[in-house]
Write a structure and sequence with these properties.
2 copies of one chain form a homodimer. Chain A is built from 11 helices and 8 strands. In chain A, the strands form 2 sheets. In chain A, strands 2-1-3-4 form a 4-stranded parallel β-sheet, sandwiched between helices. A 4-stranded parallel β-sheet of chain A has the order 6-5-7-8, sandwiched between helices. In chain A, 47% of the residues lie in helices and 15% in strands. In chain A, β3, α3 and β4 form a beta-alpha-beta unit.
């Protein structure tokens, strides 16, 4: 079965929510191929008409009924699509009415509030600056870090820290474990005052070797034996010091970040700071 | 009206989707205060029982019916919450059945697929590495950039680039416009071969002065006159060379990124590459 269905994520703002929920639903049908398009900033009747036109053209060339996941908030924009022959999933329409009943309040129907943030924005910017300045063992202010990720070279520390800073406003530092650190099997001295903030990252030796191979082909650094040995010693260190750690081999950045927040109990702390 | 309602985002995975849609819906009721908690990785009956216990305790202390936004996929886990006195919004249950009909297919009901990605993951990691190496005019490979953000100091280039790399897998470079560049009103020489990739960022002088003030208090750099003058000259340069640009003063990073993708038409390109 290899049919390819056209899917549109339709939004009066960025489309991020429509994409996120739509994609989650579609993963439930993983034997079907989907071609996805995002129609963002559809926030006036003319843009809505253009979006509808684009959807209709897609339908014509594909010969199948297009699927539309909508987070449009304005009823008059949703109405533009009412007569169209599309499979329509409407996140707002479905849930706003029961919410109004439960909260005994009218929805504002306003556009453009979904991602508005100010203090939180500034916090995220500060966190990004901190994280950029505390990558790979750099930086002198680990006492200000919310979390310090620990792991050997190329196990995902930097992108995870950036994600935690950008998305969660956490000051995330990271510190590389090197063969020197394994010689005496002690935690590196700069980290010792901050054990409560440490979180380890690990990965499978095979995947690590593959990643390192792309960086330094046919090096000792990228050999499976080196990878195995470094990973074994890093995990031994994590265990010796009671540092929680995570095997990220099959995880996306979102999952790594959410797992760290979950395990480290940081999510609440973050929300308290907002 | 200042009631405070307890809200739980319940998920068998990261909770990102439940949070995103739940928060979008709640912004429609902005005069009501919500206290939000994320219950992630609720992927077995014991975790479900614990989550229910936590929700019930919250209900008892708040004296109000808790609201639960669920993306739980497994019916037997959803069933744990069936008898609880909560206001229940179930994203999967609501939409999976109509989707099965439309697609004439059974949903896999499987857990843990929502954020699975492999090639896309690698693309994002590569993009992050590129972006870190091409921050603030650094880096020698602008020919490999998907986009180059242009703007004066402290107008949001770095975090926006990191977001585009992490979230969208785009190799996003950025290049600072300095007073030197304004002297002859020409585009800096290294950028001239890549005009099609350029995108400008601007901001209000007041906001910029505030941001710079935190960095270098009472400096000429942070004065409102300097900010006004630099912004005016930057925008003149954007106009002279026909470079699309964005005023980010009131935007979140998500909105900035989505607007750039929308205006630059990069979204499709990105999806094609996946």
């Amino acid at each position: 079965m290899t049919e390819k269905r056209l899917v549109y994520f339709l939004s009066d703002r960025t489309g991020i929510t429509a994409e996120a929920l739509g994609k989650s639903l579609l993963t439930q049908f993983d034997h079907i191929q989907f071609e996805r398009h995002t129609l963002a900033f559809v926030d006036n009747p003319q843009r809505a008409a253009e979006a509808l036109q684009q959807i209709r053209q897609g339908a014509q060339s594909s010969g199948q009924r297009p699927m539309v996941f909508s987070t449009l908030m304005q009823p008059e924009l949703r109405a533009v699509f009412a007569a169209a022959d599309v499979f329509w999933i409407d996140f707002f329409d479905t849930f706003i009415a029961p919410l109004e009943l439960e909260l005994n309040a009218k929805s504002s129907g306003a556009v453009g509030k979904s991602h508005a943030m100010s203090d939180a924005y500034q916090q995220r910017m500060d966190a990004v600056n901190f994280t950029l300045g505390h990558d790979d063992g750099l930086g002198q202010h680990l006492e200000l870090a919310d979390i310090i990720l620990l792991g050997i070279s190329r196990c995902g520390k930097t992108p995870t820290c950036l994600y935690l800073a950008l998305q969660n406003g956490l000051r995330a530092a990271n510190y590389p474990l090197t063969p020197d650190d394994f010689a005496d099997a002690h935690l590196p001295a700069p980290l010792r005052p901050y054990q409560a903030k440490l979180f380890g990252l690990s990965i499978s030796p095979e995947r690590l070797a593959q990643i390192r191979q792309e960086r330094q082909p046919d090096s000792d650094y990228a050999s499976i034996n080196t990878c195995r040995s470094e990973l074994r010693q890093a995990e031994a260190l994590f265990k010796k010091y009671g540092i929680a750690y995570l095997d990220i081999t099959t995880m996306s950045i979102e999952e790594i970040a959410a797992s760290i927040l979950h395990q480290a109990g940081l999510r609440l702390q973050r929300m308290d700071r907002r």
